[in-house]
Amino acid sequence: MTTHVLAIAGGVGGAKLALGLTRVLAPDQLTIAVNTGDDETFHGLHVSPDLDTVMYTLAGMSNPETGWGIAGETFRALGALQRLGANTWFRLGDLDLATHIRRTQLLRDGLTLSQATRELTSALGIRHPIVPMSDDVLRTVAVTDDGELAFQEYFVHRHCEPRIAGIRFEGAATARPSPGLWAALASATAIVYCPSNPLVSIGPVLALAGVRDAIAAFAGPKIAVSPIVGGQAVKGPAAKMMAELGEEVSCVGVARRYAGVCDAIFIDTVDAANAGAIEGMGMRAYVTDTVMHTDDDKEALARQIVGIVEAWDE
Ligand code: FO1
Fold first, then answer.
1. Protein residue whose Cα sits closest to atom 8 of ligand 1
2. How many domains does the chain have?
3. Most-buried pick from 35, 58, 106, 170 (CB within 10 A)?
C-alpha cells in the first residue's frame, strides 16, 4: 500500500514537521490538516494564523525569528491603521495583509475556506495539500480567571497571562471536518500529530463532529510528536496551560492527552526515562532528537516517522 500521511498541525511547531514531511513524501502521499480554531477577524479581514504559518513555511517565506508572519516584513499599514484609531495589538505586516485581503475577497466571492486555501497555496507554488480542519466556524475560547477570552485575545493581547481554568471550542457541536480532512481520514495509511499544542492546536481538530471517533477507529498507525521536551514547551504556552489545568507537564502528560487516539509517541532524548511510563499506557515510545532547528532536522525527524509508518505491523 502506498504511504499516505495525514499530518495534523497547529502553528509554528506543526509547520516545522510539515515542512520535513514535504521533503520525504510526494504531494499525493501527504495531507496537512491545519487548526482554524485560532482564526479571527481583524480590520474586517479573515485571518487564519495557523494556515498562514504552515503556508508561509512551505513556501519558504516565513519569518525565521518568530516562526509566524513573513520574512523581511514591514508594518507601515499597521502604523497607519493605528493613527486612524484602530486596535493594532495583533501585528499584521504589510505583505501578510495581502494574504488576508485575498482570502477575505475569495470568501466573499462564495468560496469555502478550503477552496480559498487552495487558491492561496497554489499561487505561492505549494504542491503539497494544506487543508483547513473545517470550512465551518469553530473558535477556541480560553476560560480564564479573568473571564472568557477569544484565543488571540488571550494569546497575543493578554500574553497568556490570565490563569486558565478550561478551554471551550465554540461551534464544535455543529462544525464538520473539511472535505480534505474527511477524505484523508478515509484514505490515509497513517496519522501524525505534529508537535503542536495538544490543547489548543490539536484539540480543536479532535473536537470537530465525528473526528475523534473516526480517528479512534482508524486502522493505521497514529503517531504523535511531543511538543513538551524536558518539562517545557519547545515554543508557546502549552506547558503553562497544562500546569494550570492540573495536567502533568511532560511527554507522559501529552501521551495521556492523546489516549484513545494515538498508538505511539516520539519523545526527545532528554525524556528517555519517560519511555517506560508511556509504554505502560499501551503506547509505543520512540526516543530521538525532536527539537528541530534546521531544515535538515525537520527532514530527519520526518524520515524517522515515515520509516516507522512504513514498517508498522499491528
Ligand atoms: N503572534 C504574536 O505573538 N503576536 C502577534 O502580533 C501575532 C500576529 C500574527 C499575525 C499573523 C499571523 O498569521 C500570526 C500572528 N501571530 C502573532 C501568531 C499567532 O497568534 C499564533 O502563533 C497562533 O495563533 C498560535 O498557533
1. 91
2. 1
3. 35
